[in-house]
Amino acid sequence: MWIDDLALLIPPPPAEERTVTIEAGDWKAAEQKLGRPFPPDFKQFVETWGPGYIGSFVAFYTPTGNYSTAILLPAAVERPAKAYAELKQNWPAKYALPNFPADGSLMTAGVTDNGDYVGWIVSDAPPETWPVAVWGDEDGMPQVFEGVTFGPFLVGLVTGSIRPEAFPPQLWTDTPLGFTVLPQKAAR
């Protein structure tokens, strides 16, 4: 199973090192606001590893905590969805996906240091079947990994067997990629 494979490659941080505890209600609130569920393997990853970076490059979203809106749900999904809709309005041939949350649209789940997004192409099929997609910051259409769901995508990303075109090749100089817990912002 993907989670066992990933845990062998990058063990989850101990609970005391994770910066937030995620409850089922946290996911439900974000899903209701967005009008779409999250795939169960994504939730399992975030709940097990906590908010953080893979390869010091890709940060995945979280439904709770004192984090930047760049990774805090639901704003983390809404912001790139709005940007895509604006780009589509100006260049409809280049940005041909439907706008989120429509079937066939991109629902983001993480962001890179370069401004690329990792997510899924959503549909009326069960979310655990949605293919992963990577939208490069300068690309109109995302790279879709047909038949590859979130958990197996992570294992491939960490080992280097899956290398999105938008990601820099030097990311895989040293594999497996590691995991770094993302600290919460200091209270003001």
Automatic annotation (TrEMBL):
Domain of life: Bacteria
Start and end residues of each Knr4/Smi1-like domain: 25-145
Protein name: Knr4/Smi1-like domain-containing protein
